[in-house]
Amino acid sequence: MIHEFKDGYVKVEHHHGVTTIEFFHPQSNSLPAKILDELAQSIHRAGNDEETKVIILRSAGDKSFCAGASFDELIAIKNEDQGLQFFSGFAHVINAMRTCPKFIIARIHGKCVGGGVGIAAAADYAIAVEEAEIKLSELSIGIGPFVVGPVVERKIGISAFSQLAIDATLWRNADWARRKGLYAELHPSIESMDESLSRLADVLMHSSPRAMEEMKKIFWKGAENWDKLLIERAAISGRLVLSEFTRQAIEKFKKK
């Protein structure tokens, strides 16, 4: 099943107990509101599907895994309500991944920025290639990693999260991300990554669904209030994105 939009798509495929959810956007796999909404819904549906034993989350192409928020949509936000609605899209994706009773494996084939780092952190197991650098660039455009903050901090700790959040223009290499716990595995090639991905998916496909569901509850213990927390964080970003600083910063980025 494929859900196509003006630019990009979300594609869902099911094969022998494995549901693969793939997203694409021509601007480095950035995430406009419609793709965010469909991602959240697709994850929710797969989680409730009795035939699905494990979920693989990936993006298309061979460059960036995810460039985060869509600059075109950020610059189009006119008021706080629109800002809240847009950033809530990231909250809904993270919460869908959190509450999904199935393990989610993320296939990270390239660079992650902002919300892309949040998606990698929300995955239960992330497998990446050595070129998969990361950056939380939000502060550099006048906002901050408010919505993705809790899930990134949960995965890599407050110290590593604050380093990413403060130095918002510095790329951290994939080995840094692995050592901090964001990536479970690093591979020298796409082929090696996909072999490992297939192996793990096969193992999980033959594991106890009930045991995996109970394990996931334990892994996410302490995040039960995120339905409220992440929306509150979205409201902060929704206010800050209206500032003149942010408007000018986004325009500069778009001209690069």
Descriptive account of the structure:
This protein has one domain (about 1-190, about 225-255): 2-enoyl-CoA Hydratase, Chain A, domain 1, CATH 3.90.226. Strands 1-2-3-4-5-7-9 form a seven-stranded mixed sheet, sandwiched between helices. The protein is built from eleven helices and nine strands. The mean pLDDT is about 95. The chain has helices at about 35-50, 70-75, 80-100, 115-120, 150-155, 160-165, 175-180, 190-205, 210-220, 225-240, 245-255, and strands spanning about 1-5, 10-15, 20-25, 55-60, 105-110, 110-115, 125-130, 135, 185. Strand 3, helix 1 (about 35-50) and strand 4 (about 55-60) form a beta-alpha-beta unit.
Structure described in brief:
By secondary structure, the protein is of the alpha/beta class. The chain is 50% helix and 16% strand.
Please describe the structure with a list of short key phrases separated by commas or semicolons.
50% helix; 11 helices; 9 strands; 256 residues; 2-enoyl-CoA Hydratase, Chain A, domain 1; two-stranded parallel ribbon; alpha/beta
